[in-house]
Amino acid sequence: MPLVESMARWLSSGGVNQIILAVNHLSDKLKVEVGHRVAGVTVEFSVEETPLGTAGPIRLASNLLSRDEPFFVTNGDIVSNIDIRRMLVMHEETRANATIALVSVPDPSPYGSVLTDADGTVKNFEEKPTVHSAASHVNAGVYVLSPRIVDFIPEGRPVSLENEVFPKLVRNGRMQGWTHDGFWYDIGRLSEYVRANRELLEKQEPKTRDSDAAENGWEILRPSYLGTRTRLGVGARVGPLSILSDNVSVGDEAIVRNSIIFEETSIGERATIEDSVIGERVIIGSGSKIGHGSIIAGQLVIPRGSVVSPNSTILY
Predict the structure, then answer these.
(1) Where in the chain is the domain with CATH 3.90.550.10?
(2) Is 120 left (phi over 0), alpha (psi -120 to 50) or beta?
(3) Side-chain-facing half-sphere of 132: CA atoms under 13 Å
(4) pLDDT tens profile 100-109
């Protein structure tokens, strides 16, 4: 499932009926691919001519925001089941100007810790902490903001929520923390993207052997996910821990293990892919072997009989 659709479903489950995508790079392509409605949610676009940081886009989109009701802001590279309904209720009960979702991680150093008091009021942001503890909480990249926050954001220049807006709220005691204890992944890093997909696959209900697998001569080892219009050849084996996006074809006797395959990719007969990420509309030639830990960018052709060494990255 595309990330935009996944996030729209999550936000919709929390009562959100409109999302605004703050975009710059490839905005025209996103408009075409996403459209104006995803998973039952209306989509609007706010286009930055130049990057405006994490707060500037909020100011730019202010004409699309309600001046009477709080709104959510979320980073575009997280996957989580944060309960935004309950987060909103707490925001309104505490009358905070901003509420930030917090999540506990084993090592907060890549993110920085957020310190709160016993009532959940945010007291400090600690960048790059050197002391780790099980109680370390970091910014989960999901916020509830009151409309008045827009007035804190200067116009026409890049502005950082984390470094310019939030510190003012903390000093005034107007920022609240909401602690999340479910799953959370920062998939802006490839290693986290792979981990998120695999762990979420493992959370699925286990399935027995597919009813038509024996009849058609292919095998799916669970947990795995196959998108719509996926085609498997005779003797093909997929899984475990494999994700095939929409319209992927796997040739006769080909093997795909522990891998993520993006949409409209074609895998030739007797090809083998192990522990790899393959982009969209890639053609993997017959008999090719893709070594574990490899990454292949979208719209490339891997010739017949190729051997891609382990941990390779092919971008063009």
Answers:
(1) 48-188
(2) left
(3) 8
(4) 999 998 888 8
Distances (CA, A) of 301 to 49, 167, 263, 286, 298: 34, 49, 15, 11, 9
Instruction: Find out whether 256 and 243 touch, Cβ atoms under 8 Å.
Output: no
Count of beta carbons in the 10 Å neighbourhood of residue 86: 12
* pLDDT tens column, 150-195: 999 999 999 999 999 999 999 999 999 999 999 999 998 888 899 9
What's the predicted TM-score (pTM) here? 0.84
Residue at token pair 């493992």:
202
Out of 2.170.190.11, 3.90.226.10, 3.40.190.10, 2.160.10.10, select the CATH number for domain 213-314. 2.160.10.10
**pLDDT at residue 126, rounded to an integer:** 84
Distance (Å) of CA 56 to CA 52, 96, 126: 5, 21, 23
Give domain 48-188's CATH number out of 2.40.128.110, 3.40.50.1820, 3.90.550.10, 3.40.50.720. 3.90.550.10
Nearest to 253 by CA among 267, 264, 263, 240: 267
Q: Which helix (H) or strand (E) holds 43?
A: strand 41-47
SS3 28: helix
Q: What confidence tens digit (pLDDT) does each residue in 48-102 have?
A: 999 999 999 999 999 999 899 999 999 999 999 999 999 999 999 999 999 999 9
- 293-301 CB contacts, 8 Å cutoff, 24+ apart: 295/190, 298/262
Residue 220 has which token pair?
């799916």
